[in-house]
Amino acid sequence: MRSKVCVPQKLSQKFVSNIFFPPQVHCLRSLDNLFVVVQEFKDYQFKETKEEVLKDFEELAGKLPWSDPLKIWKINTSFKKKKTKRKKITQNSSKEKTDNGQGDKTDERDVKKEFTSNVLDSQILDYYENPAIKEEISTLVGDDLASCKEETDESSREDTDPELLKFRVTCNRAGEKHCFSSNEAARDFGGAVQDYFKWKADMTNFDVEVLLNIHDNEIVVGIALTEESLHRRNITHFGPTTLRSTLAYGMLRLCAPQPTDIIVDPMCGTGAIPIEGATEWSNCYHIAGDNNPLAVNRAANNISSLLTKSQVKEGKLSWGLPIDTVQWDICNLPLRTGSVDIIVTDMPFGKRMGSKKRNWNLYPACLREMSRVCRPGTGRAVLLTQDKKCFIQALSRMGHVWRKVHTVWVNIGGLHAAVYLLKRTPQPFVHPSEQDGERSPW
């Protein structure tokens, strides 16, 4: 799911600063990216040949209304600079209070080293979340990719100019009927943007990121307001199916947690859902469980890293989070019947984890055990899956204990998945063994 905030271009600077871009906009929990729209084309008419299409992209750069979007970008940049300045002052102040010797300095360096070492994990996350199904993402900047030497030779002269901005162009293309690649679109459009503004191309240390989003016949040109996706906030140890924190937040919001609710993720993986829940709904109690010991270990490490990060940021000891990690069997949870208020989980799609064949047995067993531990009448569940056919058939057999309330369609790395909001019916759970006259162990 690529959630984002899009801002129209024709807005006064005062209106934008007061309404759309307070500093808190970067704290929105369900948004991956923020960008201001330069111009949107709902039904763009592509030419027949690649050469003609790329020529149109070159000419498009000089025709776009850049002025107001760049004003918005400047306002947003000033907010970020103020935030960074305040953060440095706070860190220096806390450092003076807590620096009692060389040992403390060493610990701080170790903590920073731990966080910077997780850059590779972020790249792993991109690999797992973007299987490149009918989607291309390219970051290029015109002909300057082939002239790195010239940029290096001129860097000392151009860096002294405070008005000279560095930029890059990122093209996100989806659709099967295009005669060009995202690389080619980004290259030609980026070259035209550079010629128009006389900006310096820089792939990594850029000031402005221009976005060219192409989806079938729809084109959106924008300017990024975030340097990286906002979903990378709580997870430092990634697994093969790590869920975005933004999607985890959206799933939790669907079930409307109330104070003192017990919220369980029985297939937690790296713990994205319960960690997001414990961060945003600290007045609830969260349990993260999984049958894989590696997953439980990753979830525990993510909790520990988040607490360490919070301690470094605030300069004081943290009291922890209302969350526990447990290794268990999803089909035989060590929880009392009717003891859980909310269940939120990402079920195996049968692609990277498990198999679609196994899902035909797993899904009914999961729904049955979830109905046992979930509180009758008030309990609810939010379940994510891409194996929709299997899930719907399993749910149809459990109509006496689960009622589907709502379905939200999401895009998970190019896969069309669904988030199902279920309500627990008032009917008490009856264990299969009780139906045979045996006494249930629960």
Could you say which overall geometry the principal axes of the C-alpha atoms support? elongated
Structural class: alpha/beta
CATH superfamily of the domain at 245-430: Vaccinia Virus protein VP39
Note the run of SSEs as H and E.
EHEHHHHEHEHEEEHEHEHEEHEHEEH
Record field, number of beta strands: 14
The largest sheet, given as strand count, sense and whether it forms a barrel, is: 7 strands, mixed
Q: Give the strand content.
A: 15-25%
CATH topology of the domain at 245-430: Rossmann fold
Please identify the top-level CATH class of the domain at 245-430.
Answer: Alpha Beta
Examine the secondary-structure arrangement and name the CATH architecture of the domain at 245-430: 3-Layer(aba) Sandwich
Distance between the termini: 39 Å
The low-confidence runs, each spanning 5 or more residues with pLDDT under 50, are 7-20, 97-134, 142-162, 437-442
Radius of gyration: 25 Å
Question: What helical percentage do the residues reach?
Answer: 40-55%
Mean pLDDT: 77
> Number of helical segments?
13
